[in-house]
Amino acid sequence: MRDRYDPDLEAWCVQAGATNWHAYSHLYPLSGKALPGGSCYSVGLGGHITGGGYGLLSRQSGLTVDYLYAVEVAVVNADRTVDLVVATRDDPDPDRRDLWWAHTGGGGGNFGVVTRFWFRDLPAPPERVLITARAWKWPDFTKESFTRLLNAYGEYFADHQDPATPAGRLFTLLTLNHRANGEIGLIAQVDADSDAEDDPGVAAMRAFLKKVDGDRVPDSHPMWSSAAEHAAIPGAYKPRLMPWLTATQALNSSGENRCGKYKSAYLRKPFTKRQITAMWDYLGNTHFENYDNKEAVIQIDSYGSAVNDPPHDTASPQRDSILKMQYQVYWQRPSDDDAGDEAKHLAWIRETYRATFAATGGVPVIGENTDGCYVNYPDTDLSDADWNTSDQSWHKLYYKDAYTRLQRVKARWDPLNIFQHAQSIRPPADI
Ligand SMILES: Cc1cc2nc3c(=O)[nH]c(=O)nc-3n(C[C@H](O)[C@H](O)[C@H](O)COP(=O)(O)OP(=O)(O)OC[C@H]3O[C@@H](n4cnc5c(N)ncnc54)[C@H](O)[C@@H]3O)c2cc1C
C-alpha cells in the first residue's frame, strides 16, 4: 500500500488492498494519525471501512467512516463499460455524494470495487495507553456472581458515555468463553499520560476494575490464554502503561487460519435478566455442557461515547448503543472436502444467539433494548425465517431506515446488479 497525503483532496489516501495492520504500521508513522479501526491485523480495509469499521479507539474518536472523505470506485455502467469514479463527502454532484455516503456503512460488495479511500481530519491516537488483561476461572462462578459481573459491566457503560472523560474513552472487551475454555477474559484500554496514581486514565481504570472485578465476583488472575481473536497479555494483570502502537501490536493475535461464524448485536441498555440467564445456560452450564470447543465465545465490546456523536450523516445508523456483542465460533476443517464438526459449531452459535434474544424473535430487533446487527459480521441466518422470527428483515437489522437510500444508490451506480451476494443491497424493484 502507498499511504500519502493528497494535497488536492486535503486528505490521507489509503489504498483499498491495505489491511488494518498496514494502516497502523504505515499511516501512523507517516502522519501521526490513526484510523479508529479494528485490532485484528489481517482484516482488509476494503470490507472493514465500507461496513463502518470500529475498534479500541472508537469510544474516543468514533468510527473509521466518520473520517472518510472520499472513495475511488470502479463501477459498471448499464452498457457494461467501467468507470473509475472519485466521490467525495461534499461532492457537487448529488449522485456522487450518495456514492460516497453508501461507503460509510453500506457494506462491501454492493456498488463496485473500491480502489482508494481518503480520510480527512483523522485523530492522533494517544501517545500512551494503559492496558489491563485479566481472567476469571469458570469453576469459580455461580450463576449469581456471573449475573453480578454482567450487571456491573452493563451499568458501567450505561453510566460512562462522555468521550471528554477518560471513563468515556475507556474501551473494553469481555470475552464470555464457553466453559470448555476454562476462563472468562477481560481486556481494557484507556489513554493515560503516566502510571501515577493521580493520572486521570489510571483513576478511570481503577474505578472500572473496582466496579467489575471487585469482591462481588470470583478472584481474577493474569490472562494466559487468548481472548477470542485477541492475544493474551499475562504481564498486564496490573494495568501497564505502554506506547499506543505497542499496545495495538500486543493485542493483535495471529493465530492459524480457521473457519468461523459470527453474529452480532447492538445493545442500547444493560443486559436484561433473561439475556443473562440465556448466556449462562448456553455457555455450557445447562445447555451444550458436552460441547468441547475452547473457541466459542460471546464477546462484549464497550461502545458508544464518540461513536454516538457522529460529525456527518453516514450509512452506519446505530448511534446510541452502549455495548456491541459479537458471537464468535472458530474451528478447523480436517480438509477442504470435509467440513468436520461444522454442524455442531453452527448449532452452538445459532442456538445461543436465539436464546439470548428469545424475547424478540431470536434477533436483537431495533427496539427499546437492542438496535439491530453489524453488517461487518454478516449473518445469513438473519434472512432465514427459521432463525429470525421477528418482523424485522435482515436489511432493517443492519441498516435501519438507511436501506431505502442505499437501494437508490444501488440503482444509480450498479444498474445491472453486477455486485451481489446473499445479503447485498437489492435494486429497488427487487425488494
Ligand atoms: C478475526 C476478525 C476480527 C475482526 N475484528 C473487527 C474489529 O475489531 N472491528 C470491526 O469493525 N470489524 C472487525 N471484523 C470484521 C471485519 O471488519 C469484516 O469482516 C470486514 O468485512 C473484513 O473486510 P475484508 O476486506 O478483510 O473481507 P472480505 O471478506 O474480503 O470482504 C468483505 C466484503 O467486502 C467486500 N469488499 C472487500 N474489498 C472490497 C473493495 N475493495 N471494494 C468493494 N467491496 C469490497 C467483499 O466483496 C465482501 O462482500 C473482524 C473480522 C475478523 C475475521
Task: Write a structural description.
The chain is 27% helix and 21% strand. The chain contains twelve helices and 13 strands. The strands form two sheets. Strands 6, 7, 8, 9, 10, 11, 12 and 13 form an eight-stranded antiparallel β-sheet that branches. It has a five-stranded antiparallel β-sheet with strand order 1-2-5-3-4, with helices on one face. Strand 1 and strand 2 form a beta hairpin. It binds flavin-adenine dinucleotide. The site of flavin-adenine dinucleotide has 21 residues, from helix 2 and strand 5.
Main sheet record: 8 strands, antiparallel
SS strand fraction: 15-25%
- Structural class computed from helices and strand pairing: alpha+beta
Question: Architecture of the largest domain, according to CATH?
Answer: 3-Layer(aba) Sandwich
CATH level-1 class of the largest domain: Alpha Beta
Give a count of the beta strands, DSSP E runs of length 2 or more: 13
Helix content: 25-40%
- Say what the CATH topology of the largest domain is: Vanillyl-alcohol Oxidase, Chain A, domain 3
Distance, first to last CA: 38 Å
Q: What small molecules are bound in this structure?
A: flavin-adenine dinucleotide
Flag low-confidence runs. Answer: none
Task: Count up the helices.
Answer: 12
